[in-house]
Design brief:
CATH topology of one domain: Umud Fragment, subunit A
Mean pLDDT: 82
Number of helices: 1
Oligomer: single chain
Shape: globular
Number of strands: 10
Radius of gyration: 18 Å
Helix content: under 10%
CATH architecture of one domain: Ribbon
Amino acid sequence: MNKKLKIFNLEKKSNLKLPIYLNTISAGFPSPADDFVEKKIDLNEELVKNPAATFFVKVDGDSMIDANIFKDDILIVDRSIEVKNNKIVLAVINGEFTVKRLKIFKDKILLKPENPKYNDIEITKEMDFEIWGTISFIIHKAF
């Protein structure tokens, strides 16, 4: 787990709207592309559904690489999304932040890393444990 947590403030909402093509792009066989932009997109509108309950954090570590979460990725954490089994969450255990997949069983709660070199974390009554929010989006470089 890592105590370092960089939280990005959303109070100053940008008004940067960039072009988006409304036609989808084929990831298989190439299709002809349109030569014009049909509308503008604001990523805040697309990625942040509830600004008052949303914040960004930067990832440090490799415990979630099999969930395509890598070092220096930016996670969008939404506190308004209901916490459910199998969701990826930002949690605090004994004062340390961690991002893991939440596994809820009848008799126990686990935080499961998505990297086989790490062990599950079983939440016990002795731990100071809190879920800060559910990860709604992951932003990372393509390569």
